[in-house]
Amino acid sequence: MNYFELFDLDPVFTVDTANLAERYRELQKAVHPDKFASQSEQQKLLSVQRTAQVNDGYQTLKNPLRRAEHMLSLRGIDLSHETTTVKDTTFLMQQMEWREMLDDISHSNAPQDKIDELYDSFASYEKSLFNLLAELLASEQEQDDKSAAEQVRKLKFMAKLQDELTRIEDDLLD
Amino acid sequence: MAYSEKVIDHYENPRNVGSFDKDDSSVVTGMVGAPACGDVMKLQLKIGDNGIIEDAKFKTYGCGSAIASSSLVTEWVKGKTVDEAASIKNADIAEELALPPVKIHCSILAEDAIKAAIEEYKTKQSK
């Protein structure tokens, strides 16, 4: 399923989110099961399926990481089921270091300060990865798609770190 | 998901956790990560002049299966030659720990960590 086609949008990484939300509302209305209440069972079922598709498409295109993954899958690189191992030592060292810092938060005297610092570090690193990713995806060269996939893999590690940090912050507030 | 007893044992009592002095010239490091789950694994091998692995240590951030897989391989590689260690297959690890299919990638990560460390050893040797 090509979600860009479903939403009638250009298949580019720099999606206009306001436009995307507008298209989502229109599509949602057009396929909503309530509209098919008086129609055949088959029509109703189809409407439910279409609604699920529209929702999934919106979630995919709204989230930059999932959007990039979707673009790459349309270009023949499937990242969602892969078991590729990342071996970039510099990157992984940094991941280790950040994980260690996450572990240290609970022993810190000023945990919230540490959390804020890490949010900033993660955000600025993610931003640089996303900038590079946008450039690579725009070129539409096979070699650049491969590099783009590398950035997506790195961003997945960052998403995991973000989740951990949020979890730690939630625990702290309890 | 139910973990096997062996996974729980390694998870609760991980063997050989930690790091060697990175300036020790007989130590090589394999760093690997799995994007699907964000797991990061560091495996260090201390290799003697005769090419036999004298000691191993690991540090893994990840799920129970990833920790158990790396803990297990630190036990397995000790006393082996570099080539013997390089022949350890992820299927052996998965079988020993009775990993379910969704956790097979944890054993792949452990196999790749050994390979990465040995690759560094071979690079060092050829210098």
Automatic annotation (TrEMBL), chain A:
Looking at the UniProt entry, the stretches that span the membrane are none
Q: Which UniProt keywords apply?
A: Chaperone
Recorded superkingdom: Bacteria
All residue ranges annotated as the J domain in the record: 2-74
> What Gene Ontology molecular-function terms does this entry list?
ATPase activator activity; protein-folding chaperone binding
BP terms from Gene Ontology: [2Fe-2S] cluster assembly; protein complex oligomerization; protein folding
Pfam families named in the record? HSCB_C (PF07743)
Choose one Gene Ontology CC annotation of this protein and give it. Answer: iron-sulfur cluster transfer complex
Concerning its family, UniProt says: Belongs to the HscB family.
What is the stated purpose of this protein?
Co-chaperone involved in the maturation of iron-sulfur cluster-containing proteins. Seems to help targeting proteins to be folded toward HscA.
- Subunit-structure text: Interacts with HscA and stimulates its ATPase activity.
Q: What is this protein called?
A: Co-chaperone protein HscB homolog
Automatic annotation (TrEMBL), chain B:
Which Pfam family, any one of them, does this sequence belong to?
NifU_N
Q: Which domain of life is it from?
A: Bacteria
GO aspect biological process, one term: iron-sulfur cluster assembly
One GO molecular function term?
A: iron-sulfur cluster binding
Gene Ontology CC: cytoplasm
Q: Show the SUPFAM superfamilies listed in the entry.
A: SufE/NifU (SSF82649)
InterPro entries given for it? ISCU, NIF_FeS_clus_asmbl_NifU_N
Residue limits of the NIF system FeS cluster assembly NifU N-terminal domain? 2-126
* Biological role: A scaffold on which IscS assembles Fe-S clusters. It is likely that Fe-S cluster coordination is flexible as the role of this complex is to build and then hand off Fe-S clusters.
Which family would the database say this protein is a member of?
Belongs to the NifU family.
Q: What is this protein called?
A: Iron-sulfur cluster assembly scaffold protein IscU
